[in-house]
Amino acid sequence: xxxxxxxxxxxxxxxxDQVLVFFARNPDEALMLSDIxxxxxxxxxxxxxxxxHMAKAGLVSKAQGKKTAPLVVSAGPALLAMxxxxx
Length: 87
Fold this sequence. Notes:
By secondary structure, the protein is an alpha+beta fold.
């Protein structure tokens, strides 16, 4: 059985759309950065870049306790406002 190839940085727009659809359908869910890598078959750098840009736009929120703790991503206020969910 072969594993799907991971998407590189050129696929960031596609990843952005996939992440936004996921959180629009599941506004109460949160994903660790490693979950995004696995769920959408992307490299860590692509996931980081995408999350960083979406967070600047308020589409996702990032949370990280300690510096060594995993980064947790959830629906941001701008996305919640678009889908009519409570923040």
